[in-house]
Amino acid sequence: xxxxxxxxxxxxxxxxxxxxxxxxxxxxxxxxxxxxxxxxxxxxxxxxxxxxxxxxxxxxxxxxxxxxxxxxxxxxxxxxxxxxxxxxxxxxxxx
Length: 95
Prior knowledge:
Blueprint: H1 6-15, H2 22-43, H3 74-79, E1 84-85, E2 88-89
Antiparallel strand pairs: 1-2
Helix pairs in contact: 1-2
């Protein structure tokens, strides 16, 4: 696997419209090489029988039943509205 050098970082920085100092280019080249080394380690793993997944652990969304309930202080809310019509908030037309 090839390694990143300062010229590669300059090219990527140019494409991303980033201005990097020489020290940052050297730092990022080392960091990118560390990432490539990690991917090389991962390639050594046997993943033949591993199913593709979006999460490493099983995740489920915990939901509750949606039940309509009357709000006990509805009139208090309506009284604080800048404008109302009967039992509803009145808002300006958008279109």
